[in-house]
Amino acid sequence: MPEEAGAERAEPVLPRISVVIPMRNEEGNVAPLIAEIANALDSEPHEIIAVNDASTDETATILSNLRGAYPQLRVLHHAESRGQSAAIRDGARVARGALLCTLDGDGQNNPAFLPAMIRLIDADPAIALVQGQRVGRTDTGFKKFQSRIANAVRGAMLRDGTRDSGCGLKVMRRAAYLRLPYFDALHRFTPALMVRDGHRIAHLDVVDRPRGSGVSNYASWARAKVALIDLLGVWWLIRRRKPDTPTREET
After folding, report:
1. Considering the domain 17-212 in this protein, what is its CATH number?
2. What are the residue boundaries of the structural domains of the chain, listed by start?
3. What is the pTM of this model?
4. Is 200 helix (H, G, I), strand (E, B) or coil?
């Protein structure tokens, strides 16, 4: 039936929460992970933004097919691989929620922890980031060894009170995240840069689980060398930070 004259149309409900997932060659993990996120956040207005980082497997096709089953799913595609931080940044730019949640696309981060993390950030307006910290790591011995060294060095230099900044499970205030200086490894230094900007951060222990399928492309000594350069850059950024002072416009 045609609408009556003067009838008001219902405004669409904007999501309060935007979940951003960077994905590269995760064809075996896509469908289970999207289903888990939707189930974990079924009581919250939310959107899921999957960023396909130029996958060469069937990740893109599976994501496109899932959109019919999950109307809250949005899909971005990179024409060439740009890395995890770029994927998160691009998802954050188009996100509509005030709260930004991130998690890895390999299934090791359990979305069941997201509601508890959201409750933590909702409880205190001064908190801009809730950082997950993994317990019961299921990575290979080599990758755990790398992470242990990296976190020890990073913690000693940056002093952000975070034991495991590499955990992909994060809940952030989108506005605060978008004000951070962007560089290629931002996702690993988000806690330190949030503290640098004067924000409070909170932590939640999360249980790690095995990768759903496929293999990681990140465990290498070459990556460790690049991470050291990034660490020195973030250390420099923190030391160069000037505190904000009130600004008054003349009238």
Report:
1. 3.90.550.10
2. 17-212
3. 0.83
4. strand
